[in-house]
């Protein structure tokens, strides 16, 4: 086995991702989990409807226990976000905050819904200047002034991506929480940073024309990209040609093995559709981890998958 290639790379450290890590590692696969526990939707929640949990237990406590289990079985957990995934020669290259990682299989388990700013103008101007996906919509803003709002890796990576389309890029962040490697790239770029402030209102009537910030200043922009947290599974899947559900385009289509239409790519948890429950996420994570480990083993042996 090539030592610099892992069998299973898991994007997301919530219930689906951690359960996938446990099952894949128990099958003797080499496993790396990318993500931060606090990014999971249950981290700040309480759980009382999960088998074997008496009373109410903090979600953060469950996640910490799951992390310890995954680590004990041999999975490596990296507190780093994945920025992009590319496919090539039967393997996948994950570009992360802290450097690249090659993997034979990938499990997408980042959760579903994108976080909102919840400010005036956001809902009203959605699709008319407000976007939640730089990779999807950057091309519509060539040479136009745009802003990216967020404190994490998705916001910084999005702003850097936009520089390939327009020289007028603002990054609005209250407090940047990113790796030193990504911070260095940001500070060496031509991005106009507005740190220590946040968005108070998105201005415009028929389309976005400005951002009102909490310090009272106003940025003249035509596009606003809301990137709160890490890259979502849908954005990561776009470069790979992974199919979404035809009706709503809000979740990734999988079969009963949690396989997507791309061999070696699996999805589990909220990103694979409703119901948005931990029990479903854990079950799908189990299946995805098992199947991904089998797929990787077959690749190592040179067998047909």
Core attributes:
305 residues, 7 helices, 5-stranded parallel beta sheet, alpha/beta, FAD/NAD(P)-binding domain, 7-stranded mixed beta sheet, globular, 2 domains
Beta content comes to 25-35%
What's the domain count?
2
From the coordinates shown, what is the CATH architecture of the largest domain?
3-Layer(bba) Sandwich
The CATH class of the largest domain: Alpha Beta
The number of helical elements comes to: 7
What is the tally of beta strands? 17
Mean pLDDT: 90
Largest sheet: 7 strands, mixed
Structure description:
This protein has helices spanning 15-26, 59-72, 134-137, 153-162, 180-187, 233-238, 278-301, and strands spanning 5-11, 31-34, 46-47, 57-58, 76-78, 82-88, 91-96, 99-108, 130-131, 146-149, 169-173, 192-195, 199-204, 208-213, 218-219, 223-226, 265-267. By secondary structure, it is an alpha/beta fold. Strands 1, 2, 5, 6, 7, 8 and 17 form a 7-stranded mixed sheet that branches. Helix 1 packs parallel to helix 2 (59-72). 45% of the residues are buried.
